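stage 2 :: seqdesign
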């Protein structure tokens, strides 16, 4: 590796191009920049259509207009290898001094190999192990891990590519990060010994005590109530905030920071208990086991009812195959019986929040229908031609009928705008094909795929003779 003492090394850029000069960097070249406010950074040059103006991007969502730049220097033109191999080297001058020119000198180089890491979000000048100059923003990923981001697509230099680094001028991103870190440390210090309001925390600082007292009240109206049911509504905690305990809901925010949404609707413990009763009442009310498990705790009863409901339309469906693909169960979760769905067969599951047996059966029906369609191969398709169809600000992109192996039909509709879109698939029920005429068929079909919602109306479909033949009329 290089022999010079990086701690004594200084590099002077003594020939920065003035922004008002005719010269411009090559497209995408990463340059050292002196800004008009006296600070230094770096960025890749992206000219406008004229080639005379443009902006520098430093890969951190920061675009620097040429108007903000006093001087620039393409760093890719320098190879410092020969200089850095000299043990006695302490100074490198890049360029030739000229009157009135821009210059910039840096020192205080440090080594990542020595465990000397930049501060998070700090923008740095780099000497790569190839002898090239570069720059990038340090992105911390652990106590001793990180990398320098330099491209808008998160292109980066790994630690093993960098021989030395030194910070460039602080910018808004770094200063904001520094301020947030100061606030975090201050908060941490305040919360080491939080104060307790004796009125607000009359019953102590264990949140379960408050849930238990709220449960006592709810049980008078809902004999089946449990704390598990209450906590289906985002649970509340007792946490320290600004040096005092508060009731709050918490969530993890940017960079792992915990954000607390403090309760401010009252000032006493009993008021908070009443608040807990109020916000959890609906969850408890909708958890009546007599309604939810109307048909008992045997899952097969619910699956049979769901299958019977879809069998008349999805005539090819096989219940064993559907049960294998759509895994449902009835399990105890936090002491309460729940309908659950297992997506991958590994034991991981999600709770199906249904307040009645009927709504759970409908959920199973939807899953059965989706899987039954997936298991019925397509044998032929017909894409309906259209032009310039707009649906509530979205543009229709695809409207395609498919004939299935069973002889049934489905339709796929897709629409979107410049930034988003969506698609849906519909099974065309046998009831539609029981119509005596094509017009009557369309009337029934459009109850499933209404023109106002999906772009094509009766008159559009009626005029398509190819579609009529494809559907067997």
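stage 2 :: out
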């Amino acid at each position: 590796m290089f022999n010079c003492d990086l701690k004594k090394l200084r590099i002077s850029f003594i020939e920065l191009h003035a922004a008002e000069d005719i010269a411009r960097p090559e497209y995408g070249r990463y340059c050292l920049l002196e800004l008009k406010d006296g600070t230094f950074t770096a960025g890749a040059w992206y000219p406008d259509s004229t080639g005379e103006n443009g902006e520098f991007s430093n890969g951190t969502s920061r675009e620097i207009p040429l108007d903000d730049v006093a001087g620039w220097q393409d760093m890719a033109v320098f190879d410092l290898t020969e200089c850095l191999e000299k043990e006695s080297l302490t100074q490198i001058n890049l360029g030739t001094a000229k009157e009135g020119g821009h210059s910039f000198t840096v020192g205080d180089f440090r080594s990542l190999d020595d465990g000397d890491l930049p501060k998070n979000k700090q923008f740095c000048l780099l000497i790569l192990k190839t002898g090239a100059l570069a720059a990038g923003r340090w992105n911390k990923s652990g106590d001793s891990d990180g990398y320098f981001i330099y491209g808008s697509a998160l292109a980066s230099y790994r630690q093993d590519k960098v021989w030395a680094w030194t910070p460039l001028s602080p910018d808004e991103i770094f200063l904001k990060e520094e301020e947030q870190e100061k606030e975090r440390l201050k908060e941490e210090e305040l919360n080491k010994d939080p104060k307790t309001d004796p009125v607000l925390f009359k019953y102590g600082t264990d949140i379960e005590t408050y849930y238990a007292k709220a449960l006592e009240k709810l049980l008078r109206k809902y004999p089946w109530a449990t704390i598990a049911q209450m906590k289906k509504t985002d649970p509340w905690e007792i946490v320290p905030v600004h040096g005092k305990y508060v009731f709050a809901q918490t969530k993890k925010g940017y960079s792992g920071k915990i954000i607390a949404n403090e309760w401010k609707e009252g000032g006493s413990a009993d008021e908070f208990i009443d608040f807990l009763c109020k916000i959890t009442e609906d969850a408890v009310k909708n958890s009546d086991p007599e309604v939810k498990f109307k048909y008992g705790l045997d899952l097969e009863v619910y699956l049979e009812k769901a299958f019977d409901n879809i069998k008349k339309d999805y005539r090819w469906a096989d219940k064993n195959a559907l049960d294998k693909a759509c895994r449902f169960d009835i399990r105890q979760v936090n002491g309460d019986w729940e309908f659950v769905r297992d997506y991958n067969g590994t034991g991981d599951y999600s709770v199906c929040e249904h307040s009645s047996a009927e709504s759970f059966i409908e959920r199973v029906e939807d899953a059965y229908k989706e899987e039954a369609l997936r298991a019925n191969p397509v044998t032929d398709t017909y894409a309906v031609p259209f032009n310039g169809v707009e649906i509530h600000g979205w543009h229709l992109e695809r409207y395609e009928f498919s004939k299935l192996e069973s002889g049934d039909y489905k339709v796929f509709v897709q629409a979107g705008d410049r930034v988003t879109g969506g698609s849906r698939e519909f099974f065309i029920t046998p009831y539609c094909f029981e119509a005596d005429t094509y017009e009557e068929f369309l009337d029934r079909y459009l109850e499933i795929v209404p023109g106002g919602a999906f772009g094509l109306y009766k008159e559009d479909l009626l005029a398509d003779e190819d579609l009529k033949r494809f559907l067997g009329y």
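stage 3 :: structure notes
- The CA atoms of residues 123 and 137 lie 4 Å apart.
- The chain has a mean pLDDT of 90.
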